[in-house]
Amino acid sequence: MLKEKTGIGPGLFFMVLYVSLFGYGVIHAPRVAAEYIGPNGYWGFILAFILSFPVMAGIAWLGRRFPNCSVIEYLPRLFGGFFGKILGFLLLVAILVLMIRTSRIFSGGVNIFFLRRTPAWASAAFFLLVSLYIARQGIEGITRLAAFVFPLTFVLSFLAILFSMEYMELDNIRPVFFFESGLAVAAGTANLFSPFMVLLTVLLINPYLTRKEKSFPVMAGATTLASFLILLTIVSGIGNYGAEGILRYSFPVFELSRKAQLPFVLQSFALLFSATWLSQVLVATGFFYYLLAEGAADPVSRRTIVPSRSAWI
Amino acid sequence: MVRRFFRGPYQFTRLYKKPAILLEEREFTDDLDENLKSLKKNLGDPADLVWRRLESGKETTAVILYFETLVDRDLLGRQVIEPLNRRLHEVKGPLDAEDLRESLTFPKVLAVTHLHQAVERLLAGDVLLLPAGSRVVLALPLLGVPRRPVDEAPTEKGIKGPREGFTETITDNIGLIRRYIKDPNLRLEKKVIGERTKTEVAVVYLNDLANPDIVAEVRKRLEQIEIDGVLESNYLGELIADRRWTIFPLVQETERPDKVAAALLEGRVVIFVDRSPFTIIVPVTSNELYQSQVDFYYNPFIATMLRLIRAVGTIIAVTLPGFYLSFISVNPELLPQTFIQLEASSRIQVPLPAALEMLLTFFAFEVLRESSIRFPAGLNLIIGVGGGIVMGLAAINAGLVSGITVAVVVFCILGTFNTSNPSKEQAWRWVRYLLFAAGAVFGFMGVIATGVLVLAHMAGLKSFGVSYLAPWAPPLPVDIADAPVRLPWWASYRRPPTYRPREEDRLGKTEGEK
User: Fold this and answer.
1) What is the spatial distance between Cα B318 and Cα A170, in angstroms, rounded to a whole number?
2) Which of A38, A92, A302, B435 is the most buried (most CB within 10 A)?
3) Class (C level, CATH) for A10-312
């Protein structure tokens, strides 16, 4: 007899993490890679991906060390009351900044490509309200939603990126091992690490994970899958437009997915790609909203406290 | 407001606090006339209340009291009055309560000692026998109201399979299920709900399959209901649902006994409500509402195709208005050139903006749909179809609406009937208008964002602790295999784990078996 699930199992954990990593990471990755490193900017992302493994190991270790606490609860134990709370606050601010930045990017992108006559504030407010409603469903609802959107969004995103490679020029990404300077690679890697900031959320959802011993393989799996698609996007972006050409576009990924077409049905694959991307960003933003509210409630040791949650909103 | 927005999980609370009716809870006396007077007083001496004295010589031996509108008078004459008169004639003297009881050949006689109990029995259709000089009243169940015969379920017709549907009589409905499941583990618990209607409710489940937590939860939620009347099963469906503010059905209602039998075999719990042909099945998932019992009477390949048509058809019917409107009014650049030309040429004479044109077309068809339900049976097809075609063509010819708009609207209105559950179909109607509004204001991305919003709402729903989006979210591979496709019977050896049955193997091992 199965028991009712009240926490987040490995499957749900994988999907919510994948959706957040891909949704928050894909849109600017080709541009950043090309801007800092050049034609073989994908190396920056590969290095960032490799660097994410020690971070994941650290997060998994902390999760096992403090199995029933979120980072906000155990930071004061590690660093003392005052510094612990300051660090917790800074972590929440980092997540908040990441959320605001991505929200701004995606409402900007949507406005440029789909809603040119609509004021930016109107579409941003609409999308944020949707995210707020998603946050209201609680951690179970959010993870289930991520699980529901995962298969379709994964397949469509993958197809969009794959089809966009049809017109790729291999010369645009060659020579493969040519780096102009180590400093540029380091700067590019540091900037391309931003998609992996999403992993910080695991520190906050740790108490909800039902199988903590599996948190590292699940994190590694979700990160690898999302990184693989982001890497393909970077390669396709630079391969299609060249490192310099890509900088001409505000949203090169949208431009990229315009290259793929569904004859007789859709003008471009950008439509399906943007739909899947928007879905993932909305779920991820709802997830971040929820975690911020939850994290803000923890410092006063009341996970259910309402005013501090709403203050974040 | 903010506090309520981030409230915790839904807690089931009582709706009503006070009992609606207060009857005298006193015992009967040994004075027959006083007892009769008290009963008549408590009932307000209605015109259909009949009493008849059984006399032996000049003395009254007993009084028979009943509602002539409720009892089977033929049975009353044959099984009560005739034997009693015969006995009185034989004895030629007064009879006490025990003598009266013995002289009846009635299978079930209830001895009642309190006034309020007697009133309740009388209102339930029993005949009361008040013996002289006794503090006990005999209640004889002789309910004889008209019954509808078992007929085909009008809302769930199928080409194959049994033609039986439930009726308004709870005993007949339970009998139909007993004919399907001849298992001693079939448990039946009866309750009476409704202060004034005293509606009989039966909870039915298979003891060795149904999850005991779910059975206990059903019992608990039913016990918490305090309401003046239950006229239909939806009253209970709403009151026992996990969340009140939702458009989606959180219990499954069906008129088909075979569907109920299948649900019981999956380890689910069934609630019968007297005077309702709709039976409640819990828990339910959104996926369940796309599966028809008829799927299991076809070859798996045909059934799979039917399921896919049902699911894809519903998705298109719900989302098409939103997408269509967003493509023609906000994001035409997303369509191929040929579509844009086709659309532009069909709308060249239409004076209304696309959103208004479509809204009015929808409204006209919704009005037709609503009124067609009340057309006389013989005229339904002629007026409904004929009127719809004539009106649609006239509107297109007059240049009021475009042909594509009419095609989209008609397809969507008919397409939502794809779902095999009427409540779910109504829910999708709401969602369709929501997506339509989002498409009109925010275009393609508005439809997507609103779709995610609806999905988020569904992801937050549970039916008796089971996720509404199961088996997709959380993913349960065993169940997913049987969701879009219909597994052949030789591969369906497991019960759906979604409903957490006690025994997952359909032919589970007996204790001690290896």
Assistant:
1) 44
2) B435
3) mainly alpha
